[in-house]
Specification:
Layout (H helix, E strand, L loop, with lengths): L1 H21 L12 E2 L4 E8 L6 E7 L3 E2 L28 E2 L2 E6 L5 E7 L10 H9 L3 E5 L6 H4 L5 H8 L3 H24 L7 E11 L1 H9 L28 E7 L21 E8 L9 H5 L10 E9 L19 H20 L5 H4 L2 H4 L10 E5 L1
Parallel strand pairs: 7-8, 7-9, 9-10, 10-11, 11-12
Antiparallel strand pairs: 1-2, 2-3, 3-6, 4-5, 6-8, 12-13
Helix pairs in contact: 5-6
């Protein structure tokens, strides 16, 4: 099983590298029509939902910096975790945290969702999913985690080594949840003072969502605690549970491809501190890191404490099926089953957020096996929903 998982990972990385050679320009190259306060923001486009019923405005904030966090100087030697430093990288105080914001039509205020990409992704990895949520009345803040984005993945032409290093990188593992908190801080500021966003965001109704490494980020922000066992360099005491990075402003979360017990993220004791409702979504072909089978993700649900949680398990769904960058300039890695997985994933995600951020009593009925069956198609021919 481990060899099969490793082979799958190599194929994903190889495909990713191939796509980079043919990808279009980054989303930031679409052209900026207005300048707005806050880290070089710009309005990029207006887009419609699939049924054409709702316009969605997209704003970029590419130059935001969290000045409360330090960063090594340019040219500093690489640490033992193995990630290369970009020699041309400037070294202002703090960590860069780019954000792309998808804003619904209407007056608001709207609930807010912070979206965290997986290792090697960027702020457009979930572009289509962000558009879908925005078309249903959510402001979606798409993060780019600069220590684990596609630029970091491809440094030095050694993507597999970089992938392994970044998910064990102590700095990045601890920094990602802080990126989420920074995004909420900025949203609060924009809600008061930004011309395009003033009064549009309801910061009393905040959720977080992520895939893979982003699922880990989501789970930690919702209260789970990371394992220290595999971090490089070592974080004292070197084993056991790391510190809590729970953000009390987050009311619920959605973890796509949530991790189970095992290298490199969680141990059995990590899950008990979860203290807000969390939805996990995975599938029978969604293998985990370090040779763990897909079922490891589902089995860990038994370790989640009771508290309004749910877990959607899809027949034949693969890891990359839970991302969708359709509509963005950069192409996504191909998957034959993505188009089959996305409808049921979006339906479950929307039902969960509607229940916990909008108080929609009917949404709970949609988040059941019977409620999700109308969204099954193609090879995704069965769904199981656990709850506790």
């Amino acid at each position: 099983m481990r060899h099969a998982c490793d082979r799958s990972r190599r194929l994903v990385v190889a495909g990713f590298m191939s796509l980079l050679a043919t990808a279009g320009s980054p989303a930031g190259a679409l052209g900026r029509s207005i300048g707005v306060e806050g880290g070089g923001a710009a309005e990029l486009m207006s887009a419609r939902s699939d049924d054409g019923s709702s316009k969605v405005k997209v704003l970029e904030f590419p130059d935001l910096v969290d000045a409360t966090r330090g960063r090594p100087a340019a040219g500093a030697p690489a640490r033992s975790r193995g990630l290369l430093r970009r020699r041309e990288e400037p070294s202002p105080a703090g960590r860069k945290v780019p954000l792309k914001v998808h804003v619904p039509a209407g007056k608001g205020p709207f609930p807010v969702i912070v979206l965290s990409h997986g290792a090697g992704g960027d702020w457009d990895t979930h572009f289509a999913q962000a558009q879908d949520l925005a078309s249903h009345g959510y402001v979606v803040l798409c993060l780019e985690h600069v220590g684990s984005n596609r630029e970091r993945l491809t440094q030095g032409g050694r993507a597999m080594q970089n992938l392994d290093a970044m998910i064990r990188d102590a700095d990045e593992v601890m920094a990602r949840p802080k990126d989420v908190s920074f995004a909420i801080d900025r949203a609060s500021e924009w809600n008061r003072s930004n011309e395009a966003l003033r009064g549009m965001l309801d910061l009393d109704r905040v959720g977080v969502m992520g895939h893979s490494f982003g699922a880990f980020t989501t789970m930690v922000v919702c209260g789970m605690r990371p394992a220290l066992d595999w971090l490089v360099p070592e974080v004292a005491p070197g084993k056991g549970l790391g510190p809590s990075q729970r953000d009390p402003r987050v009311r619920c979360g959605v973890a796509l491809s949530p991790q189970g017990v095992g290298e490199p993220f969680f141990i059995a004791g990590s899950f008990g501190s979860l203290d807000v409702p969390l939805l996990g979504i995975s599938g029978t072909k969604d293998d985990q890191q370090a040779g763990q089978p897909a079922a490891n993700r589902k089995e860990a649900f038994a370790l989640w404490p009771k508290g309004g949680h749910a877990f959607v398990w899809l027949a034949n769904a693969k890891h990359l099926d839970f991302t969708d960058s359709t509509g963005a300039q950069r192409r996504e890695l191909p998957s034959r089953t993505r188009d089959d997985v996305q409808p049921v994933t979006r339906a479950a995600t929307l039902a969960f957020f509607d229940a916990h951020l909008k108080g929609d009593a009917a949404a709970a009925k949609r988040l059941t096996a019977e409620g999700l069956k109308p969204h099954l198609r193609g090879s995704i021919d069965a769904v199981d929903v656990l709850s506790k």
